[in-house]
Design a protein that fits this description.
The complex is a heterodimer of chains A (about 250) and B (about 240).
Chain A: E1 3-9, E2 18-24, H1 33-46, E3 69-70, E4 73-74, E5 96-100, E6 109-111, E7 114-115, H2 118-127, H3 147-157, H4 164-168, H5 175-186, H6 195-208, H7 219-223, H8 231-244, H9 247-251
Parallel strand pairs in A: 1-5
Antiparallel strand pairs in A: 1-2, 3-4, 3-5, 6-7
Helix pairs in contact in A: 2-6, 3-5, 5-6, 5-8, 6-8
Chain B: H1 3-9, H2 11-36, H3 45-55, H4 59-90, H5 109-112, H6 114-132, E1 143-146, E2 149-152, H7 154-162, H8 165-192, H9 200-228
Antiparallel strand pairs in B: 1-2
Helix pairs in contact in B: 1-2, 2-4, 2-8, 2-9, 4-6, 6-8, 8-9
The chains are: A alpha+beta (about 250), B mainly alpha (about 240).
Chain lengths: ~250, ~240
Protein backbone atom coordinates (compact mmCIF):
# COMPACT_ATOMS: atom_id res chain seq x y z
CA UNK A 1 0.00 0.00 0.00
CA UNK A 2 1.02 3.60 -0.55
CA UNK A 3 0.78 6.17 2.23
CA UNK A 4 1.31 9.86 2.72
CA UNK A 5 3.24 10.63 5.91
CA UNK A 6 3.07 14.06 7.51
CA UNK A 7 5.99 14.02 9.93
CA UNK A 8 7.22 16.51 12.52
CA UNK A 9 10.85 17.32 11.73
CA UNK A 10 12.96 19.20 14.24
CA UNK A 11 16.75 19.21 13.95
CA UNK A 12 17.51 19.91 17.61
CA UNK A 13 16.06 20.79 21.03
CA UNK A 14 16.35 24.52 20.40
CA UNK A 15 15.41 24.50 16.73
CA UNK A 16 11.98 25.34 15.36
CA UNK A 17 10.27 22.26 13.99
CA UNK A 18 7.81 21.90 11.13
CA UNK A 19 5.76 19.22 9.40
CA UNK A 20 7.17 17.64 6.24
CA UNK A 21 5.31 15.37 3.86
CA UNK A 22 6.73 12.08 2.57
CA UNK A 23 5.37 9.38 0.29
CA UNK A 24 5.75 5.82 1.58
CA UNK A 25 5.48 3.38 -1.33
CA UNK A 26 4.92 -0.39 -1.30
CA UNK A 27 4.35 -0.65 2.43
CA UNK A 28 3.39 -4.18 3.48
CA UNK A 29 0.51 -4.79 5.89
CA UNK A 30 2.75 -7.17 7.88
CA UNK A 31 5.16 -4.37 8.74
CA UNK A 32 5.05 -2.84 12.18
CA UNK A 33 4.69 0.93 12.30
CA UNK A 34 8.38 1.27 13.19
CA UNK A 35 9.44 -1.09 10.40
CA UNK A 36 7.47 1.09 8.02
CA UNK A 37 9.51 4.08 9.26
CA UNK A 38 12.77 2.07 8.86
CA UNK A 39 11.67 1.33 5.30
CA UNK A 40 10.99 5.01 4.57
CA UNK A 41 14.27 6.00 6.22
CA UNK A 42 16.25 3.66 3.92
CA UNK A 43 14.92 5.60 0.95
CA UNK A 44 15.67 8.92 2.66
CA UNK A 45 19.26 7.83 3.35
CA UNK A 46 19.70 6.61 -0.25
CA UNK A 47 18.45 9.97 -1.47
CA UNK A 48 20.95 11.75 0.80
CA UNK A 49 18.24 13.13 3.13
CA UNK A 50 18.34 12.91 6.88
CA UNK A 51 16.34 9.94 8.20
CA UNK A 52 13.35 10.50 10.50
CA UNK A 53 14.54 10.02 14.07
CA UNK A 54 12.42 8.07 16.53
CA UNK A 55 13.04 6.09 19.72
CA UNK A 56 12.82 2.30 19.78
CA UNK A 57 14.48 -0.61 21.49
CA UNK A 58 12.85 -3.98 22.17
CA UNK A 59 10.11 -3.67 19.53
CA UNK A 60 7.97 -6.13 21.47
CA UNK A 61 6.06 -3.74 23.67
CA UNK A 62 7.93 -4.19 26.92
CA UNK A 63 10.69 -1.58 27.07
CA UNK A 64 8.77 1.69 26.85
CA UNK A 65 11.19 3.34 24.42
CA UNK A 66 8.97 3.95 21.43
CA UNK A 67 6.13 6.40 21.24
CA UNK A 68 4.69 8.54 18.49
CA UNK A 69 1.46 10.52 18.39
CA UNK A 70 -0.14 9.02 15.28
CA UNK A 71 -3.11 10.90 13.81
CA UNK A 72 -3.56 12.72 17.11
CA UNK A 73 -3.50 9.57 19.27
CA UNK A 74 -0.57 8.43 21.43
CA UNK A 75 0.69 5.06 20.09
CA UNK A 76 -1.88 5.26 17.28
CA UNK A 77 -5.52 4.18 16.99
CA UNK A 78 -5.44 0.88 18.93
CA UNK A 79 -5.70 0.41 22.69
CA UNK A 80 -3.30 -1.69 24.73
CA UNK A 81 -0.37 -1.51 22.30
CA UNK A 82 2.81 0.54 22.01
CA UNK A 83 3.81 2.03 18.65
CA UNK A 84 6.10 -0.96 17.94
CA UNK A 85 3.18 -3.34 18.24
CA UNK A 86 0.97 -1.38 15.88
CA UNK A 87 0.87 -3.03 12.45
CA UNK A 88 0.32 -1.47 9.07
CA UNK A 89 -2.67 -3.77 8.44
CA UNK A 90 -4.62 -1.29 10.59
CA UNK A 91 -4.14 1.36 7.90
CA UNK A 92 -5.45 1.56 4.36
CA UNK A 93 -3.92 2.30 0.99
CA UNK A 94 -3.93 6.04 0.36
CA UNK A 95 -4.14 6.99 4.06
CA UNK A 96 -2.59 10.23 5.23
CA UNK A 97 -0.81 9.58 8.55
CA UNK A 98 0.36 12.41 10.80
CA UNK A 99 3.21 11.84 13.26
CA UNK A 100 4.17 14.08 16.14
CA UNK A 101 6.37 13.67 19.19
CA UNK A 102 4.90 13.52 22.73
CA UNK A 103 4.08 17.14 23.50
CA UNK A 104 4.71 18.24 27.09
CA UNK A 105 6.82 20.94 28.65
CA UNK A 106 8.42 18.28 30.85
CA UNK A 107 9.33 16.18 27.76
CA UNK A 108 11.45 18.49 25.57
CA UNK A 109 11.92 17.37 21.97
CA UNK A 110 15.43 16.07 21.30
CA UNK A 111 15.09 15.49 17.57
CA UNK A 112 12.11 14.88 15.26
CA UNK A 113 9.95 12.34 17.14
CA UNK A 114 12.41 11.75 19.99
CA UNK A 115 11.68 13.38 23.35
CA UNK A 116 13.66 13.51 26.57
CA UNK A 117 11.74 11.59 29.24
CA UNK A 118 14.30 11.89 32.04
CA UNK A 119 11.63 13.70 34.09
CA UNK A 120 10.20 10.19 34.67
CA UNK A 121 13.60 8.96 35.87
CA UNK A 122 13.76 11.79 38.38
CA UNK A 123 10.28 10.91 39.68
CA UNK A 124 11.46 7.31 40.20
CA UNK A 125 14.69 8.49 41.85
CA UNK A 126 12.67 10.60 44.28
CA UNK A 127 10.89 7.59 45.79
CA UNK A 128 10.17 4.76 43.39
CA UNK A 129 12.31 2.19 45.18
CA UNK A 130 12.22 -0.11 48.21
CA UNK A 131 14.80 -0.74 50.88
CA UNK A 132 16.10 -4.25 50.30
CA UNK A 133 18.56 -6.39 52.18
CA UNK A 134 21.64 -7.27 50.24
CA UNK A 135 23.17 -10.72 50.26
CA UNK A 136 21.44 -14.03 49.83
CA UNK A 137 17.85 -13.63 48.69
CA UNK A 138 15.09 -14.53 51.12
CA UNK A 139 13.15 -17.74 50.82
CA UNK A 140 10.33 -17.11 48.33
CA UNK A 141 7.48 -17.90 50.73
CA UNK A 142 8.97 -16.14 53.76
CA UNK A 143 6.72 -13.12 53.21
CA UNK A 144 3.16 -13.97 52.26
CA UNK A 145 1.23 -11.59 50.02
CA UNK A 146 -2.52 -11.96 49.48
CA UNK A 147 -3.37 -12.89 45.90
CA UNK A 148 -5.51 -9.77 45.30
CA UNK A 149 -2.70 -7.47 46.49
CA UNK A 150 -0.23 -9.34 44.34
CA UNK A 151 -2.42 -8.92 41.29
CA UNK A 152 -3.12 -5.25 41.93
CA UNK A 153 0.60 -4.62 42.41
CA UNK A 154 1.41 -6.50 39.23
CA UNK A 155 -1.21 -4.62 37.18
CA UNK A 156 0.49 -1.38 38.14
CA UNK A 157 4.02 -2.76 37.87
CA UNK A 158 3.24 -3.38 34.20
CA UNK A 159 3.94 0.31 33.53
CA UNK A 160 6.83 0.59 31.07
CA UNK A 161 7.26 4.34 31.50
CA UNK A 162 6.65 5.14 27.83
CA UNK A 163 4.96 8.46 28.61
CA UNK A 164 1.83 7.89 26.51
CA UNK A 165 -0.27 8.92 29.53
CA UNK A 166 1.38 12.36 29.48
CA UNK A 167 1.11 12.62 25.71
CA UNK A 168 -2.59 11.70 25.61
CA UNK A 169 -3.65 13.72 28.65
CA UNK A 170 -5.28 17.04 27.67
CA UNK A 171 -3.35 18.53 30.62
CA UNK A 172 -0.01 16.75 30.01
CA UNK A 173 -0.30 15.22 33.48
CA UNK A 174 2.04 12.45 34.66
CA UNK A 175 -0.47 11.24 37.25
CA UNK A 176 -1.02 7.77 35.80
CA UNK A 177 2.71 7.02 35.60
CA UNK A 178 3.44 8.31 39.11
CA UNK A 179 0.31 6.67 40.55
CA UNK A 180 1.13 3.31 38.97
CA UNK A 181 4.56 3.31 40.61
CA UNK A 182 3.18 4.43 43.98
CA UNK A 183 0.35 1.87 43.90
CA UNK A 184 2.61 -0.96 42.82
CA UNK A 185 4.96 -0.44 45.79
CA UNK A 186 2.28 0.46 48.34
CA UNK A 187 0.50 -2.87 47.76
CA UNK A 188 3.49 -5.00 48.72
CA UNK A 189 5.06 -5.69 52.13
CA UNK A 190 8.49 -4.74 50.78
CA UNK A 191 7.20 -1.26 49.96
CA UNK A 192 5.89 -0.41 53.43
CA UNK A 193 9.08 1.09 54.86
CA UNK A 194 9.06 4.20 52.65
CA UNK A 195 5.32 4.16 51.93
CA UNK A 196 4.39 7.62 53.28
CA UNK A 197 7.66 9.29 52.31
CA UNK A 198 7.47 7.80 48.83
CA UNK A 199 4.08 9.23 47.85
CA UNK A 200 4.96 12.65 49.24
CA UNK A 201 8.30 12.84 47.45
CA UNK A 202 7.10 11.42 44.16
CA UNK A 203 4.09 13.77 43.95
CA UNK A 204 6.35 16.69 44.86
CA UNK A 205 8.84 15.71 42.14
CA UNK A 206 6.05 15.20 39.58
CA UNK A 207 4.78 18.73 40.29
CA UNK A 208 8.29 20.18 40.15
CA UNK A 209 8.87 18.74 36.68
CA UNK A 210 6.06 20.88 35.28
CA UNK A 211 3.47 18.23 34.44
CA UNK A 212 -0.18 19.31 34.52
CA UNK A 213 -2.80 18.35 37.09
CA UNK A 214 -5.20 15.45 36.61
CA UNK A 215 -8.80 16.18 35.55
CA UNK A 216 -9.99 12.58 35.97
CA UNK A 217 -10.75 12.21 32.28
CA UNK A 218 -9.03 8.87 31.80
CA UNK A 219 -7.58 9.52 28.35
CA UNK A 220 -4.31 8.18 29.84
CA UNK A 221 -5.95 4.82 30.50
CA UNK A 222 -7.17 4.62 26.91
CA UNK A 223 -3.67 5.40 25.60
CA UNK A 224 -1.72 3.23 28.06
CA UNK A 225 -0.17 0.23 26.24
CA UNK A 226 -0.43 -1.69 29.52
CA UNK A 227 -4.03 -0.56 30.16
CA UNK A 228 -3.30 0.63 33.67
CA UNK A 229 -6.49 1.78 35.37
CA UNK A 230 -6.99 5.30 36.73
CA UNK A 231 -7.96 3.62 39.99
CA UNK A 232 -4.22 3.94 40.57
CA UNK A 233 -4.66 7.73 40.55
CA UNK A 234 -7.41 7.48 43.18
CA UNK A 235 -5.03 5.26 45.16
CA UNK A 236 -2.25 7.86 44.83
CA UNK A 237 -4.59 10.47 46.32
CA UNK A 238 -5.67 8.30 49.23
CA UNK A 239 -2.01 7.38 49.83
CA UNK A 240 -1.13 11.06 49.80
CA UNK A 241 -3.89 11.93 52.30
CA UNK A 242 -2.82 8.99 54.46
CA UNK A 243 0.79 10.23 54.40
CA UNK A 244 -0.29 13.66 55.67
CA UNK A 245 -1.00 12.13 59.05
CA UNK A 246 2.14 10.02 59.19
CA UNK A 247 5.13 11.05 61.28
CA UNK A 248 7.44 9.44 58.75
CA UNK A 249 6.44 11.91 56.05
CA UNK A 250 6.36 14.85 58.48
CA UNK A 251 9.97 14.29 59.47
CA UNK A 252 10.95 14.10 55.83
CA UNK B 1 6.32 25.07 55.38
CA UNK B 2 3.61 23.26 57.32
CA UNK B 3 2.58 19.88 55.90
CA UNK B 4 -0.94 21.14 55.22
CA UNK B 5 0.24 24.19 53.31
CA UNK B 6 2.61 22.04 51.35
CA UNK B 7 -0.20 19.61 50.57
CA UNK B 8 -2.44 22.44 49.37
CA UNK B 9 0.25 23.48 46.91
CA UNK B 10 0.51 20.00 45.44
CA UNK B 11 -1.53 18.84 42.46
CA UNK B 12 -3.18 16.21 44.66
CA UNK B 13 -4.11 18.75 47.35
CA UNK B 14 -5.59 21.14 44.79
CA UNK B 15 -7.85 18.38 43.46
CA UNK B 16 -8.92 17.45 46.99
CA UNK B 17 -9.91 21.09 47.58
CA UNK B 18 -11.77 21.09 44.26
CA UNK B 19 -13.63 17.94 45.28
CA UNK B 20 -14.64 19.09 48.77
CA UNK B 21 -15.83 22.52 47.62
CA UNK B 22 -17.54 20.97 44.59
CA UNK B 23 -19.45 18.42 46.65
CA UNK B 24 -20.46 21.08 49.18
CA UNK B 25 -21.81 23.25 46.35
CA UNK B 26 -23.62 20.24 44.86
CA UNK B 27 -25.32 19.70 48.21
CA UNK B 28 -26.36 23.36 48.25
CA UNK B 29 -27.74 23.14 44.73
CA UNK B 30 -29.86 20.11 45.71
CA UNK B 31 -31.34 21.97 48.71
CA UNK B 32 -31.82 25.09 46.57
CA UNK B 33 -33.81 23.15 43.98
CA UNK B 34 -35.87 21.36 46.64
CA UNK B 35 -36.99 24.77 47.98
CA UNK B 36 -37.58 26.22 44.54
CA UNK B 37 -39.85 23.37 43.48
CA UNK B 38 -42.54 25.37 45.31
CA UNK B 39 -42.49 27.72 42.32
CA UNK B 40 -44.44 25.05 40.44
CA UNK B 41 -47.32 25.56 42.88
CA UNK B 42 -50.34 27.53 41.75
CA UNK B 43 -50.38 29.49 45.00
CA UNK B 44 -47.35 31.79 45.31
CA UNK B 45 -47.83 32.38 49.04
CA UNK B 46 -46.12 29.08 49.95
CA UNK B 47 -42.96 30.12 48.12
CA UNK B 48 -43.06 33.61 49.62
CA UNK B 49 -43.47 32.17 53.11
CA UNK B 50 -40.49 29.86 52.47
CA UNK B 51 -38.35 32.77 51.19
CA UNK B 52 -39.40 34.87 54.18
CA UNK B 53 -38.51 32.10 56.63
CA UNK B 54 -35.01 31.96 55.12
CA UNK B 55 -34.68 35.76 55.40
CA UNK B 56 -35.72 35.52 59.05
CA UNK B 57 -32.88 33.21 59.98
CA UNK B 58 -30.80 36.24 60.94
CA UNK B 59 -27.25 35.49 62.00
CA UNK B 60 -27.44 31.91 60.80
CA UNK B 61 -28.22 33.17 57.29
CA UNK B 62 -25.09 35.33 57.25
CA UNK B 63 -22.97 32.38 58.33
CA UNK B 64 -24.48 30.21 55.60
CA UNK B 65 -23.99 32.94 52.99
CA UNK B 66 -20.39 33.54 54.02
CA UNK B 67 -19.74 29.80 53.83
CA UNK B 68 -21.30 29.58 50.39
CA UNK B 69 -19.31 32.54 49.14
CA UNK B 70 -16.13 30.94 50.44
CA UNK B 71 -16.89 27.62 48.71
CA UNK B 72 -17.77 29.36 45.44
CA UNK B 73 -14.64 31.50 45.42
CA UNK B 74 -12.33 28.67 46.51
CA UNK B 75 -13.80 26.37 43.84
CA UNK B 76 -13.59 29.02 41.09
CA UNK B 77 -10.13 30.43 41.88
CA UNK B 78 -8.65 26.96 42.37
CA UNK B 79 -10.24 25.76 39.15
CA UNK B 80 -8.88 28.68 37.16
CA UNK B 81 -5.39 28.13 38.61
CA UNK B 82 -5.51 24.42 37.73
CA UNK B 83 -6.62 25.24 34.19
CA UNK B 84 -3.73 27.69 33.87
CA UNK B 85 -1.23 25.02 34.92
CA UNK B 86 -2.60 22.74 32.18
CA UNK B 87 -1.85 25.28 29.50
CA UNK B 88 1.69 25.68 30.76
CA UNK B 89 2.23 21.91 31.00
CA UNK B 90 1.52 21.20 27.33
CA UNK B 91 4.46 23.40 26.31
CA UNK B 92 4.95 25.95 23.56
CA UNK B 93 4.08 23.70 20.64
CA UNK B 94 0.59 22.19 20.71
CA UNK B 95 -0.69 19.15 18.86
CA UNK B 96 -1.70 19.88 15.30
CA UNK B 97 -4.15 17.04 15.63
CA UNK B 98 -5.62 15.55 18.80
CA UNK B 99 -8.18 12.81 19.11
CA UNK B 100 -9.55 10.77 21.98
CA UNK B 101 -9.22 6.98 21.89
CA UNK B 102 -12.76 6.61 23.22
CA UNK B 103 -13.94 4.47 26.14
CA UNK B 104 -12.66 3.84 28.78
CA UNK B 105 -11.61 7.48 28.35
CA UNK B 106 -14.30 9.77 29.73
CA UNK B 107 -13.32 12.57 27.40
CA UNK B 108 -16.56 14.12 26.15
CA UNK B 109 -18.38 17.43 25.95
CA UNK B 110 -18.78 17.45 29.73
CA UNK B 111 -15.09 17.00 30.58
CA UNK B 112 -13.93 19.34 27.82
CA UNK B 113 -16.25 22.17 28.83
CA UNK B 114 -15.59 22.24 32.60
CA UNK B 115 -13.82 25.61 32.49
CA UNK B 116 -16.42 27.12 30.10
CA UNK B 117 -19.41 25.82 32.08
CA UNK B 118 -17.73 26.81 35.35
CA UNK B 119 -16.95 30.37 34.28
CA UNK B 120 -20.43 30.79 32.79
CA UNK B 121 -22.04 29.66 36.04
CA UNK B 122 -19.78 32.08 37.96
CA UNK B 123 -20.88 34.98 35.73
CA UNK B 124 -24.49 33.81 35.98
CA UNK B 125 -24.31 33.88 39.79
CA UNK B 126 -23.53 37.61 39.76
CA UNK B 127 -26.65 38.31 37.69
CA UNK B 128 -28.76 35.77 39.59
CA UNK B 129 -27.91 37.09 43.06
CA UNK B 130 -28.11 40.77 42.17
CA UNK B 131 -31.49 40.23 40.53
CA UNK B 132 -33.24 37.94 43.01
CA UNK B 133 -31.46 38.59 46.28
CA UNK B 134 -30.58 42.28 45.99
CA UNK B 135 -33.15 43.14 43.31
CA UNK B 136 -36.53 44.88 43.64
CA UNK B 137 -38.26 44.25 46.97
CA UNK B 138 -40.82 45.79 49.31
CA UNK B 139 -39.65 49.34 48.52
CA UNK B 140 -40.30 48.78 44.80
CA UNK B 141 -43.83 47.51 45.44
CA UNK B 142 -43.19 43.77 45.51
CA UNK B 143 -45.22 43.36 48.68
CA UNK B 144 -47.46 40.58 49.90
CA UNK B 145 -49.09 39.67 53.21
CA UNK B 146 -47.99 36.72 55.31
CA UNK B 147 -49.95 36.32 58.54
CA UNK B 148 -50.70 40.02 58.56
CA UNK B 149 -47.09 41.11 58.06
CA UNK B 150 -45.86 42.84 54.90
CA UNK B 151 -43.11 40.82 53.24
CA UNK B 152 -41.34 40.77 49.89
CA UNK B 153 -43.31 39.23 47.02
CA UNK B 154 -40.41 37.25 45.54
CA UNK B 155 -42.84 34.97 43.72
CA UNK B 156 -44.15 37.88 41.63
CA UNK B 157 -40.61 38.94 40.75
CA UNK B 158 -39.72 35.38 39.65
CA UNK B 159 -42.86 35.11 37.54
CA UNK B 160 -42.42 38.55 35.96
CA UNK B 161 -38.80 37.74 35.17
CA UNK B 162 -39.48 34.39 33.56
CA UNK B 163 -42.47 35.64 31.59
CA UNK B 164 -39.79 37.40 29.53
CA UNK B 165 -38.42 34.91 26.96
CA UNK B 166 -34.89 36.39 27.10
CA UNK B 167 -34.55 35.79 30.83
CA UNK B 168 -36.20 32.37 30.74
CA UNK B 169 -34.13 31.06 27.82
CA UNK B 170 -30.92 32.49 29.28
CA UNK B 171 -31.56 30.72 32.58
CA UNK B 172 -32.41 27.48 30.81
CA UNK B 173 -29.16 27.62 28.83
CA UNK B 174 -27.07 28.09 31.95
CA UNK B 175 -28.86 25.20 33.64
CA UNK B 176 -27.87 22.89 30.77
CA UNK B 177 -24.25 23.93 31.44
CA UNK B 178 -24.77 23.23 35.16
CA UNK B 179 -25.88 19.71 34.24
CA UNK B 180 -22.82 19.23 32.03
CA UNK B 181 -20.56 20.51 34.83
CA UNK B 182 -22.08 18.13 37.38
CA UNK B 183 -22.04 15.17 35.03
CA UNK B 184 -18.22 15.09 35.16
CA UNK B 185 -17.76 16.96 38.43
CA UNK B 186 -19.65 14.60 40.70
CA UNK B 187 -17.78 11.46 39.65
CA UNK B 188 -14.52 13.38 39.45
CA UNK B 189 -14.83 14.58 43.06
CA UNK B 190 -14.85 11.01 44.39
CA UNK B 191 -11.89 10.10 42.20
CA UNK B 192 -10.03 13.19 43.50
CA UNK B 193 -10.70 12.20 47.09
CA UNK B 194 -9.22 8.78 46.38
CA UNK B 195 -12.52 7.15 47.31
CA UNK B 196 -12.79 5.01 44.21
CA UNK B 197 -12.78 1.29 43.72
CA UNK B 198 -13.70 -0.90 40.73
CA UNK B 199 -17.06 -1.64 42.33
CA UNK B 200 -17.83 1.93 43.42
CA UNK B 201 -16.76 3.74 40.24
CA UNK B 202 -19.66 2.73 37.93
CA UNK B 203 -22.19 3.37 40.73
CA UNK B 204 -20.87 6.89 41.36
CA UNK B 205 -20.81 7.49 37.62
CA UNK B 206 -24.50 6.57 37.26
CA UNK B 207 -25.47 8.64 40.32
CA UNK B 208 -23.55 11.56 38.76
CA UNK B 209 -25.51 11.31 35.50
CA UNK B 210 -28.87 10.96 37.28
CA UNK B 211 -28.06 13.88 39.59
CA UNK B 212 -26.92 16.07 36.70
CA UNK B 213 -30.03 15.34 34.64
CA UNK B 214 -32.44 15.78 37.57
CA UNK B 215 -30.88 19.04 38.75
CA UNK B 216 -30.63 20.50 35.25
CA UNK B 217 -34.22 19.51 34.41
CA UNK B 218 -35.52 20.72 37.78
CA UNK B 219 -33.91 24.15 37.53
CA UNK B 220 -34.58 24.45 33.83
CA UNK B 221 -38.18 23.43 34.38
CA UNK B 222 -39.01 26.48 36.53
CA UNK B 223 -38.41 29.19 33.90
CA UNK B 224 -39.79 26.88 31.19
CA UNK B 225 -42.98 26.23 33.19
CA UNK B 226 -43.53 29.91 33.90
CA UNK B 227 -42.77 30.96 30.32
CA UNK B 228 -45.01 28.38 28.67
CA UNK B 229 -47.57 28.48 31.47
CA UNK B 230 -49.67 25.47 30.35
CA UNK B 231 -52.22 25.97 33.14
CA UNK B 232 -52.59 29.69 32.65
CA UNK B 233 -51.87 30.61 36.27
CA UNK B 234 -49.06 33.08 35.71
CA UNK B 235 -50.76 35.26 33.16
Amino acid sequence: MNLTLVVWRQSGPNETGAFKTYQAKDVLPEMSFLEMLDFVNEDLIKAGDEPIQFDSDCREGICGSCGIVINGQAHGPLQGVATCQLYMRHFHDGDVISMEPWRAKAFPVVHDLVVNRSAFDRIIQSGGYTSAKTGKHAEANAILVPKEDQEAAMDNAACIGCGACVAACPNASASLFTAAKITHLAMLPQGQVERARRVKRMVERMDLEGFGNCSNIGECRAACPKEISIEAIAKMRSEYLRALGSTEAKED
Amino acid sequence: MSPLRQAMRSTVGKKVLMAITGLALTLFVIVHLAGNLQLFLKDGSKFNAYAHSLESLGGLLYVAEAGLLFFILAHAVNGILIKGSHWAARGDVRYSRYQTKGAPSRQNLSTQSMIVSGLTILGFLVVHISHFKFGPGVAEGYVTQIQGAEVRDLHRLVVETFRQPGWALGYMGVMVLLGLHLRHGFWSAFQSLGAMSPRLSPVISVIGVVLAVLLALGFLGIPAWILVDPMGVYR
